[in-house]
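F.,

This is the one I mentioned.
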């Protein structure tokens, strides 16, 4: 099985080296996937919080287990929306309404009256949602005038036996569409990129380009050493990718023109990034990343750089085995800004710049699934100087966090019966 995939991969690399580019090459390229999972309990794709006593040594004081902050703020929690099912992402429309994507393949809008709309129509009919699905729904920064939104979702690649698919068979596509004037349908859907990953998010950079995270297979029974794609420039998996909003490749991408390298690649060496945010001052992409077992990371991503996976890291295989002899650093590979071992399973992240909580300005907030909390990281440039866990009183898996246009902090919970709540200063 693995050999067949490798041979197919080699043929396709040869094809792309002959100058075959664009969607034809992307759809004909065979993207490796793990074989089907043995019957048994569900795969904990969001990571395992099981501590195994492994406690890797950080590169500097404060790269993990930072002290609690000196300044805190008291907050009240108000419910904004309820009854979400499998919500994965949310973002604000310019008028303050909230666009929500649910992973089974539904987009809903939360009105200013806090009512949740029916799912909007016109989504791609070929979304593969069994264990994968819709990962991103995000308005263009000029949505008010162009009505454009960007989506990422998984589809079965050509030739997959849908009756007996491999594990995480879906490949990640990025598309644009326009939201109809009555907010009821997507129109003019256009696929922009085959990002190849098992999942991933999309965010618009300050220069207008789209930054995409493309993840590799993970979970119990999958060994990191079998998935070298994050270090391979002929694969889009395990990367941050960068495209223009029409799907074309920016000419200043770091590997444009390099033989055998995918021109979409912006940075490499990642595992499973579920959180993306643009730093409000530097304009740099920050990501959250699930490590395999431990080694969950926050990274500040720079063009052309290598973030190390699976060569260096702070986690173990799910089996408990070490990865690459527990190597945590190497020349030419970037360190995470911060890491957690054991894992918290970080999902959505957001910077806070609002006026309602002066004590939180400039902080990064991280949703934690297994960690069942909202984590506040106090930053000094690209170092963490304090860590605080909020919303532990909810005892829920937290899926997403974003600052609202009103300066409140909005937080979304995971699973069925999920909700969006708003943190405001305590009265
Ligand atoms: Ca890393």
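My design for it:
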């Amino acid at each position: 099985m693995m050999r067949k995939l490798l041979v197919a991969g080699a043929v396709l690399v040869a094809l792309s080296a002959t100058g075959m580019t664009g969607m034809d090459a992307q759809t004909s390229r065979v993207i490796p996937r793990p074989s089907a999972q043995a019957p048994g309990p569900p795969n904990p794709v969001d990571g395992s919080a099981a501590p195994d006593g492994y406690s890797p040594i950080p590169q500097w004081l404060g790269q993990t287990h930072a002290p609690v902050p000196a300044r805190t703020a008291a907050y009240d929690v108000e419910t904004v929306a309820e009854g979400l099912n499998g919500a994965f992402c949310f973002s604000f429309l310019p008028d303050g309404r909230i666009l929500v994507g649910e992973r089974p393949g539904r987009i809903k809008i939360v009105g200013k009256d806090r009512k949740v709309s029916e799912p909007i129509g016109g989504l791609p009919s070929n979304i593969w949602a069994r264990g994968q699905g819709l990962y991103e729904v995000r308005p263009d920064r000029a949505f008010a005038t162009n009505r454009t939104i960007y989506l990422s979702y998984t589809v079965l690649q050509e030739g997959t036996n849908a009756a007996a698919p491999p594990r995480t068979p879906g490949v990640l596509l990025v598309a644009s569409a326009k939201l109809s004037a009555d907010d009821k349908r997507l129109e003019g859907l256009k696929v922009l990129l085959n990002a190849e990953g098992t999942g991933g998010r999309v965010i618009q950079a300050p220069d207008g380009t789209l930054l995409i995270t493309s993840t590799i297979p993970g979970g119990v029974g999958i060994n990191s050493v079998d998935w070298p794609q994050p270090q391979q420039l002929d694969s889009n998996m395990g990367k941050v990718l960068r495209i223009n909003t029409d799907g074309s490749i920016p000419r200043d991408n770091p590997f444009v023109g390099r033989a055998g390298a995918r021109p979409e690649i912006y940075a490499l060496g990642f595992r499973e990034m579920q959180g993306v945010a643009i730093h409000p001052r530097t304009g740099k992409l920050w990501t959250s990343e699930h490590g395999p077992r431990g080694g969950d990371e926050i990274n500040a991503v720079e063009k052309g750089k290598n973030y190390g996976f699976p060569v260096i890291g702070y986690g173990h295989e799910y089996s408990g085995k070490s990865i690459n002899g527990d190597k945590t650093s190497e020349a030419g590979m970037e360190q995470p800004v911060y890491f957690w071992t054991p894992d918290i399973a970080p999902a959505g992240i957001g910077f806070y710049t609002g006026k309602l909580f002066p004590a939180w300005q400039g902080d990064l907030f991280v949703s934690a699934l297994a960690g069942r909390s909202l984590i506040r990281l106090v930053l000094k440039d690209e170092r963490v100087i304090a860590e605080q866990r909020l919303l532990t009183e909810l005892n829920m898996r937290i899926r997403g966090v974003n600052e609202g246009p009103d300066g409140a902090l909005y937080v979304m919970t995971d699973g069925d019966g999920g909700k969006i709540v708003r943190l405001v200063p305590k009265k």
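DSSP finds three helices and 25 strands in the chain.

Talk soon.
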